[in-house]
Amino acid sequence: MSNKYSTELGYKVRDHLISLRLEQPRDFNKNTQTKIDSIAKSYRDILDTLNLKTNEFDQTPNRVAKMFTQEIFYGLDYNNFPACALYENEFPYKGKLTQKNINIMSICEHHFVPFMGEAEVSFIPKDNNIIGLCRINSICDLCGINL
C-alpha cells in the first residue's frame, strides 16, 4: 500500500465514476474509530452466537474490525487514493500503453470471502504525459477492494 495519498484526485475519480453510474454515492462521514467500534461489537455478537467465548477470542473482534476498515476495505475511502505523478513522455509514444498481470484482491459480494485476480490496464498518453506505472498498481489495489 502506498503511503502517499491524493484526496483531491480521489474525489475527482469518485465523482467521475458516479457520473458514469459506475459508482454509487455513499456517505462515509463516520470516523474510523466509530466504524471499528461498530464492527467489533457486531463481530463479538457473531462469536457469542457461535458460543466462541474463550480468552483466545477476546481481541478478535477488534482485530477483525481494524482489518476491515484499514486493510480490506480501505479503498472505500477516497481519501486513500494514491498520489499520482505525471512524467514527460520522453519517447513521444502516441499509442496505447498497457500494464498486465497486476495482482488484485477483492471480496465476493455474495459469500463475503476474499478472492485473488489479475487486472490489465491500458491508457493512451495525453498532452505528452504519462502516469508513473507503479501508481497503476496502487490504483488497482485501491479499486480491487472498492466494492
Provide the descriptors you would attach to this structure in a database record:
147 residues, 38% helix, two-stranded antiparallel ribbon, 4 strands, two-stranded antiparallel sheet, elongated
Overall description:
With 147 residues, this protein is an alpha+beta fold. The protein contains 4 helices and 4 strands. It has helices at residues 7-19, 32-49, 60-72, 133-144, and strands at 86-88, 97-107, 114-123, 129-131. The strands form 2 sheets. Strands 1-4 form a two-stranded antiparallel sheet. The longest helix is centred in the first third of the chain and has 18 residues, at 32-49. The model has no long low-confidence stretch (mean pLDDT 84).
The side-by-side strand order for the widest beta sheet comes to: 1-4
The end-to-end distance, rounded to whole angstroms, is: 18 Å
Tell me the major beta sheet.
2 strands, antiparallel
Unreliably modeled segments: none
Overall 3D shape:
elongated
What's the gyration radius in Å? 19 Å
Q: Mean pLDDT score, rounded?
A: 84
Number of strands: 4
Order of secondary-structure elements: HHHEEEEH
Helicity range: 25-40%
Structural class by sheet pairing and helices: alpha+beta
**Beta fraction of the residues?**
15-25%
Helical stretch tally = 4
Topology (elements, then pairings):
Layout: H1 7-19, H2 32-49, H3 60-72, E1 86-88, E2 97-107, E3 114-123, E4 129-131, H4 133-144
Antiparallel strand pairs: 1-4, 2-3
Helix pairs in contact: 2-3
